[in-house]
Amino acid sequence: MQRQSMIGHFGCTRWVFNRYLSEADDCYKQTGKTMRCNDFIVRLVKLKEEYPWLKDVNSQSLQMAARNADRAFVNFFEKRTKHPRFKSKHSSRQSFHCPQNCKVLFPEIGTKGHIVLPKIGPIKAILHRRFNGTIKTVTVVREASGKYYVSVLVDDAQPEVVPDTIDFERTAGIDAGIKTAFTVVSQSGTEKIDNPTFLKKHSEQLKKQQKRLARCLRIVNVKENEKGEKVKEVTVSKRYEKVRKELARTHERIRHSRKNWIDQITHRLVNDSQVTTYVIEDLNLKGMVKNHHLARAVSDVGIGNFYRTLRYKLKAVGKNLIVAGRWYPSSKRCPECGAKKESLTLKERDWRCTQCGHEHDRDEAAARNLRHWVKLSESDKHRYGRNGRALEEEAIPF
């Protein structure tokens, strides 16, 4: 019963999200102005009379779906994302939000934990840790494997930690790579973190499961609905659904293994008492993934997730994370004399400086240069900003 209720929440919130996108597009085409989110939320009462099945779902979840669609349009107009797309019921990931009237009942001795959601009731849950504070939002997610996950946003009423002052002696540079996932250079030395290649280790298993899935029955029929629009109807066999879930569980295992590895690495870096500031490079990850020779290897490292996890963990303990300019030549610049080697290719992992004669490991030299970023003047940092290449290419001594 609870499973069917959650499926109903997925469908109704998805319908409200798509309805908002459709009406917002029509409003902009006709008037040239964006639709107000509050006006749509007020009209939800009339929509419930027209579509009675919306009454079976928590009203706050429906309002949250409209606000999420409005936020998607705001991000689009501010040029942070592409135009929002309609959600599909065939999507492998479904979710809905409950912003109010949610409770988390932690387990006592001999009992199980529960999460209480409006219109659904108490649901048995495996709770990983206890927390104190006010529950703000509960997000329920159903993954492609069929498992349900709940994310609880809590306000602990704790003030933000004041960040430490930036000191070069207590600064470390982090260079991201592929074979060597991360190279960390600090005052105490150099540490190289190898790439565990979770996706590569499961590649043979994924190939077998994908071949089995391709042999299963899947029929796609195109029909016209009442409005004259073409709609796809997909019919799959029971074996297709079984193999699809096996494939989804394999991808889920890879994703969780990578996340656990990133959590362990970032936890160790954040708790290093000798470092209060980390410097990373501003990588064009979207552009790197478009390279078909590097896309799988770059995605397997999880550089974006590593940066995001490191950022919020450092902020929680009052440490600093600095992003160096995108056009800062960290790999091509000699960390000893500051000379730049223009002809350095991606295959060269070791190179010698033509001016001072020092031999450098490519990743270690990049991490050392990133560490020296904090010593550059503001004008030099501006030259290697996000929007353009450096205006001058002379050597900058360290």
UniProtKB/TrEMBL annotation:
tRNA processing among keywords: no
Start and end residues of each Transposase putative helix-turn-helix domain: 2-33
Location of the Cas12f1-like TNB domain: 305-370
UniProtKB keywords: Coiled coil, DNA recombination, DNA-binding, Metal-binding, Transposition, Zinc
Coiled coil segments of this chain: 199-260
Top-rank taxon, per record: Bacteria
The keyword tRNA processing appears for this protein: no
Residue stretches making up the Probable transposase IS891/IS1136/IS1341 domain: 169-291
Similarity comment: In the C-terminal section; belongs to the transposase 35 family.
Name of this chain's protein: Transposase
UniProt organism field: Parasutterella secunda
